[in-house]
Description:
Number of strands of chain B: 4
Oligomer: heterodimer
CATH architecture of chain A: 2-Layer Sandwich
CATH class of chain B: Alpha Beta
Order of helices and strands of chain A: HEEHEEEEEEHE
CATH superfamily of chain A: NADH:ubiquinone oxidoreductase Nqo5 subunit
Largest sheet of chain A: 5 strands, mixed
Structural class of chain A: alpha/beta
Amino acid sequence: MNTSLIELVKERFPTAASSSHTYRGDETVVLRRELLLEVARFLKEDPALQMNFLMDLTAVDYSTFGKSPSPAFFASSGVAVSPSSQIPDKDPWPGPPAEARFAVVYHFYSLKHKHRLRLVVPLNETDLEVDTLTSLWAGANWLEREVWDMFGIRFRGHPDLTRILMYEEFEGHPLRKDYPVNKRQPLIGPVN
Amino acid sequence: MFDSFLTSRLDAALGWARKYSIFQYPFVTACCGMEYMATACAHYDIDRFGAGLPRFSPRQADVLFVVGTISHKLAPALKRIHDQMAEPKWVVAFGVCTCTGGFYDNYATVMGIDTFMPVDVYIPGCPPRPEMVLDGLMKLQNKIQDQHTTGRRAAAESRPDNLEL
């Protein structure tokens, strides 16, 4: 396909995308959350797109992003994660999508056209809610429950938004950067 | 004197019978299971030690093999399995995750199953080689042989409540 998927989305929804980029061949649209459901429906139903497969749905907590230098990939070897200074990065990573603390990330794939697109929806900490995609992709159900469980992001209209990995008694959301890394909540046995 | 001779001989006979008829309950949750299967199969042949028949019911088993990472969510289920086993019973912590939590140090993983249940033999390794498992099994056999006829341990073995980490 010649026209980029980003252009198709922007053509149909001129106000939806706050930014977009193509990082190493992966097309990404950063979306305002109000239009998520409509854009997703467009992606699924438009004949030129036909994104019938929701590959992944997850979230990122950017609250500590860039606060400390990137750690060595293997602590003992000192090999850093960042690209070598000897080889300049021609296509640098565009950085976090927004100032917002959280971002919900959707990866779509079209089994018909064999193309993919990533949607990123930044969310402010004060209002962690986004529309559910269960009406369009049934597979979103458990993925959204996982995001709720790990990050505490609510999905408006979800049929059963309960924890999926952790137990009901668990307090907090463990993949948030402010969850204490040493905090333990055992169901039985001492807390250590 | 004859009485004590009889009792001690009976103890030895019972211990001998018990240690060569180990019925294990394999509680397999993770990659250690592959090494457990290797140990149980023909090449390493755990049947040489009389432990060749795993029972998949806790009522019929007398050694609980905890094989693989135990999460906090799973811990009550494991405890329940252990409670359902009839005395005399023994527990083997198979692999470093069950011994100490291994390289997991996070919100999800139990830092060693001995935080909530007694353990008789620890077999560390990630995963342990079958030779190591057989060594652990022989150590368990020695322990069974030396135990009192009832098979009960004097006091439950567990970690202290306040653990310095």
